[in-house]
Amino acid sequence: MSRNERERFLAAARVGVLSVSDTRDGVRAPLALPVWYGYEPGGEIVVETGRASIKAQLLRAAGRFSLCVQDERQPYRYVSVEGPVIAVEDPIDPAVRTALAERYLPTEEARAYLAATIDQLEHDVAFRMRPHRWRTADFAEFAAELTDVGADVGSDRHTA
């Protein structure tokens, strides 16, 4: 994907999988969790979590994380980014929380969700990450080549 394509892809409302190093109890494996995230092209990734959560503890300890988002529809595509945590908003800014809810839920559902979970404003923090490393794949071209090959093979069968 080009830079513009990958940034537009990441900016779309998709559930991401956040991965952070987990060294508790000698585990030395990543903790990977689905998350809502915010991103605008050229900007930072923002994720929200509980201040006392394992995720927050690990993010603080590691000082960096990865986020992978994908499109499960054919042709498959994904963007994976990794980078340092550049800021922790503690407590979370209500505007950030509202923007995340409105990104993933219809307006009325977002309002209801925010009202039902208002106490999270006291307990949640936001982590901001600046993407440094990008990995992307867009299988559209590969799928088109397969379709073209299949069409050619099918044509040969009918004319042979």
Structure description:
This protein has 160 residues and is an alpha+beta fold. It has a single domain (3-159), classed as Roll (Pnp Oxidase, Chain A). 39% of the residues lie in helices and 34% in strands. It is built from 6 helices and 8 strands. β3 (37-38) and β4 form a beta hairpin. The longest helix is centred in the last third of the chain and has 20 residues, at 140-159. The chain is globular. The model is unreliable at 149-160 (pLDDT under 50).
Secondary-structure-based class equals alpha+beta
Overall spatial form: globular
CATH class assignment: Mainly Beta
The helical percent reads 25-40%
Any idea what the CATH architecture is? Roll
SS elements, strand count? 8
Would you tell me the overall average pLDDT? 89
Q: How big a fraction of the residues is strand?
A: 25-35%
Radius of gyration: 20 Å
Classified in CATH, the superfamily is Electron Transport, Fmn-binding Protein, Chain A
Largest beta sheet, briefly? 8 strands, antiparallel
Question: Nutshell version of this structure?
Answer:
This protein is α+β, with helices and mostly antiparallel strands.
Q: Characteristics of this structure?
A:
160 residues, Pnp Oxidase, Chain A, Split_barrel_FMN-bd, F420H2_bilvrd_red/Heme_oxyg, 8-stranded antiparallel β-sheet, alpha+beta, Pyridoxamine 5'-phosphate oxidase family protein, 8 strands, oxidoreductase, Pyridox_Oxase-rel, globular, disordered C terminus, single chain
Write the layout of secondary structure elements.
Blueprint: H1 3-11, E1 16-22, E2 29-35, E3 37-38, E4 45-50, H2 54-62, E5 64-71, E6 77-89, H3 94-104, H4 107-116, H5 120-123, E7 124-129, E8 133-138, H6 140-159
Antiparallel strand pairs: 1-2, 1-5, 3-4, 4-7, 5-6, 6-7, 6-8
Helix pairs in contact: 3-4
InterPro entries: F420H2_bilvrd_red/Heme_oxyg, Pyridox_Oxase-rel, Split_barrel_FMN-bd
Protein name: Pyridoxamine 5'-phosphate oxidase family protein
Pfam families: Pyridox_ox_2 (PF12900)
